[in-house]
Amino acid sequence: MKKIIKKTKKAFTLIEMVIVLFIISLLLLVMIPNLGAQKNNASTKSEEAFKTTLQTQVDMYDSDTDNSNGNSVPNWTALKLKGYISDKQFKRIGDNYEITKVDDKDKGLSFEVKSVKKATTTSK
């Protein structure tokens, strides 16, 4: 006699699917806030690195030019024209950064790059 083997379809039950969807939604709830925080952290680090680069370029400009009397503060246009900053950097600087003169008794005259925070307005 031949035995007839009945093949049964195997599939997930509704309960199993609901459990999987619940676990996925929990993981998303944990990950989404962290992604926003990581984006803000990366943006902050990028701005700090850019400011450090600008400070280095201002220091190079200051050491290469004769500014012994300390009357003139370098500006971004002068740095761009003399090749210390690129066009891309110049566009990114915009009104976001300024160069200020620092007269320290121990270190002498130097220049510092500072971020200029723009005031944000909200409209309703």
UniProtKB/TrEMBL annotation:
Keywords noted in UniProt: Cell membrane, Competence, Membrane, Methylation, Transmembrane, Transmembrane helix
Principal location: membrane
UniProt keyword Transmembrane helix present: yes
Record GO biological process: establishment of competence for transformation; protein secretion by the type II secretion system
Cited SUPFAM superfamilies: Pili subunits
A GO CC term assigned to this protein in UniProt: type II protein secretion system complex
Location(s) in or outside the cell: Cell membrane; Cell surface
Pfam families xref list: N_methyl (PF07963)
Transmembrane segments: 12-32
Membrane topology designation: Single-pass membrane protein
Domain of life: Bacteria
InterPro entries named in the record: Bac_GSPG_pilin, ComGC, N_methyl_site, Pilin-like
Protein family per UniProt: Belongs to the ComGC family.
UniProt protein name: Prepilin-type N-terminal cleavage/methylation domain-containing protein
Species assigned in the record: Companilactobacillus nodensis DSM 19682 = JCM 14932 = NBRC 107160
